[in-house]
Design a protein that fits this description.
By secondary structure, the protein is of the alpha/beta class. The chain has 16 helices and 29 strands. Helix content is about 30%, strand content about 25%. Strand 8 and strand 9 form a beta hairpin. The longest helix has 16 residues. It is elongated.
């Protein structure tokens, strides 16, 4: 039976033909998230290029042996008699003259003369190409173009941006001219090809205050010292276990090799199987650990600086980020390790025991970069420091970053503390849009909300576990805002007539029934309250009134 591509996979390949038809010398970029089937798109494109012109010479390069082997295996599975070979020292193969060659950049960057004429160069994980022409990628591409100036270059990536220079298709030093096709994580979740991502607020979050930056990323040595505190590690692991006890496979991203070992030791101390993987292990030992993890020998796997690309295990249904990063692409790659379905689609995955993936963000990466399907990439040349403004979480005004109190609404920001791990809930949604869910309310409080230049309102805060969700009601407004308040009052059992002022509302607040649950859904970087369940009249009060 012939292979049938998913619609978006077919569209991505067709976009290349349309682009090259109008830009025969252009270098296009395909953006396909982790789990989208990038290896299959590469294989099908190679096969179609060969069918169109049997003498076409294709080289596909990447940076890790796992991707080389994976992409080669995908092509042979699709096209068993493909004239393909591998050039990779780590895989023990140097088939330089294969018509279709899968190569590791470390092995071939100085071997362009041996490889010879190339018609199409495909770069997997294209976001790792540095802009500097003196790097391995730069030297290899320059040497190949000296042999064939008309060589086409195609880039493929899940994250079309670099840490230090923004988007790959922007800037004077860009290698790629345009993104010809892009599909988002949100699209693939909606279409049933990836599992939904869910997040829970973590009571423990890593505080990176005082950690310097080097090359656009947190200083690795300083970060290791800040993060690797045994008491804080114990607290974080307790949360992972509390949330993940009934989940199948946990993947923990740590902030250094010692930290990865300490997290693994604590997981084992608390009764769960765990192993650690990092770049200092031998290739054989690393392969053994990965093989055993995939076979289910270990419940958890901690890692430092590896497993962000070229590692696929669809069983992973919990990702714990204990590594803060300034790299948007690294953040997206970490989360992407848990998005794969067990089977061809979400229906099969649910039957096989994986309905979603839980992301626990102890590192503040979601708040730093935004929901994974709507990440915010900083433009190059904007400096490495924090932005000079910040957003008030209460009234959403942009104010000077150094202010402790919002001049618009009076919100008081927490002071920075010396503790490296603080009890602050990470409440930014992992996905910008989500299905609504009910969460229990332990306490409800009403606050007068004053904002200069605007009519006053009432802020309603719901304490749900360790997270506070907020909404605003407006007794003194006109139109829709007033109508919404009147409905809120009626729905909660308030007596008629409806209050006309904030003072009257707060005086009569005891007339309202308590809220037992609220229904929330992700809306960009925030949670939106879209429904409530009310307590019965005889349930104990959980409400408070604040001036």
């Amino acid at each position: 039976m012939s292979l049938v591509l998913r619609p978006y996979q077919r569209e991505s390949i067709d976009s290349l033909y349309s682009y090259w038809g109008e830009n025969p010398a252009g270098n296009p970029l395909l953006v396909l998230p982790t789990g989208a089937g990038k290896s299959l798109v590469i294989a099908q494109t190679m096969k179609e290029f060969h069918e169109a012109e049997r003498t076409t010479r294709i080289v596909q390069i990447t940076h890790v042996k796992e991707l080389i082997a994976q992409n080669y295996k995908e092509l042979i599975g699709l096209w068993p008699w493909a004239p393909a070979g591998i050039y990779s020292a780590s895989l023990g193969r140097r088939e330089a003259h294969a018509q279709i060659l899968f190569a590791g950049i470390q092995s071939v960057y100085s071997k362009a003369a041996n490889i010879g004429h190339v018609d199409v160069l495909m770069v997997d994980e294209a976001h790792l190409i540095p802009p500097d022409a003196k790097t391995m990628y730069g030297k290899f591409i320059t040497a190949l173009r000296a042999i064939n100036p008309k060589m086409l270059i195609l880039g493929l990536t899940a994250t079309p941006y670099r840490l230090d220079s923004g988007r790959l298709d922007e800037g004077d030093d860009r290698l790629f001219d345009a993104v010809t096709y892009e599909v988002s994580i949100r699209d693939l979740i909606d279409w049933g090809f990836l599992v939904p991502l869910i997040s829970k607020a973590t009571a423990n979050t890593i505080n990176v205050k005082g950690v310097s930056r080097s090359g656009g990323e947190f200083n690795a040595k300083q970060l290791q010292l800040v993060v690797d505190d045994l008491e804080k590690t114990k607290a974080a692991v307790e949360e992972v276990i509390a949330y993940g006890r009934d989940r199948r496979a946990w993947l923990c991203f740590c902030s250094g090799v010692p930290h990865a070992h300490d997290v693994a030791a604590e997981i084992r101390r608390q009764g769960f199987t765990c192993e650690t993987i990092h770049g200092e292990l031998s290739a054989g030992e690393r392969d053994r650990i990965i093989r055993d993890f995939k076979a289910g020998k270990y419940q958890a796997l901690t890692n430092a600086n590896v497993l962000t690309t070229g590692f696929n295990d669809p069983r992973i249904d919990l990702v714990a980020m204990l590594r803060p990063t300034l790299s948007t692409s690294l953040y997206v790659q970490m989360v992407g390790r848990g998005t794969r379905c067990i089977g061809p689609d979400i229906d099969a995955s649910i039957r096989n025991g994986k309905a979603d993936c839980l992301v626990l963000d102890f590192a503040g990466n979601v708040r730093r970069h935004g929901p994974v399907d709507a990440v915010e990439v900083k433009k190059p040349g904007k400096g490495e420091g924090d932005a000079p403004v910040k957003e008030c979480p209460t009234c959403h005004s942009l104010i000077l970053a150094g202010l402790r109190e919002c001049p618009d609404c009076g919100h008081v920001f927490e002071r920075s503390v010396d503790e490296k791990l603080t009890a602050t809930a990470a409440t930014v949604p992992i996905i910008s849009k989500s299905t609504a869910e009910f969460v229990p309310v332990s306490e409800r409080t009403f606050y007068r909300h004053e904002k200069p230049g605007s009519r006053a309102s009432i802020r309603v805060e719901y304490l749900c576990g360790i997270v506070v969700h907020k909404e605003w009601i407006c007794p003194e407004h006109d139109g829709y805002a007033r109508d919404s308040f009147a409905k809120f009052w009626r729905d909660h059992g308030g007596a008629m007539p409806t209050p006309m002022t904030i003072d009257e509302t707060l005086e009569r607040i005891d007339e309202l029934r308590e809220t037992s649950e609220i229904r929330i859904k992700a809306d960009g970087r925030y949670w939106k309250i879209c429904g409530r369940k009310l307590a019965t009249r005889d349930q104990p009060s959980a409400g408070n009134l604040a001036a």
